[in-house]
Amino acid sequence: MTFLYFDPGLGAMIVQAVVAAAAGILLFSKNVMYKVKSFFGLVKEKKDTYDSIDIEEEDTNTDDKKN
Amino acid sequence: MTKKTDAHQASFRDPSGYMFYDGKTLRRAIKPIYFPQYNKLKESGFFKNLISNDLLIPHEETSVSSEEIILTPEEIPFITNPYEWSFEQYKHAALHTLKIQKYALSKGFILKDASAYNITFHKGKPVFIDTLSFDFYEEGTPWRAYKQFITHFFGPLVLAKYHGTEVFKMMQTHIDGIPVKLISSLLPTRTKLSSVIYPNIHLLAKMENKHSEDYKAETKIATLSKKAQENIIESLYDYIKGMTLKEASEWGNYYDKTNYDEAAFEAKKTLIKEWIKPLAPQKLIDVGGNDGTFARTVIDSVPQIIVTDIDSNAVDYNYKQLQKNKETNMLPFVCDVLQPAPGIGFNNAERNSLIERLSDYAPDVTMALALIHHITLSGNVPFEKSASFFASFSKNLIIEFPTREDSWAQSLLVRKREFINHFDFYNEAEFEKGYLQYFTLEKKETVKGTKRLLYLLKNKNHEG
Question: Where residue B368 sits, what CATH number does that domain have?
Answer without folding.
Answer: 3.40.50.150
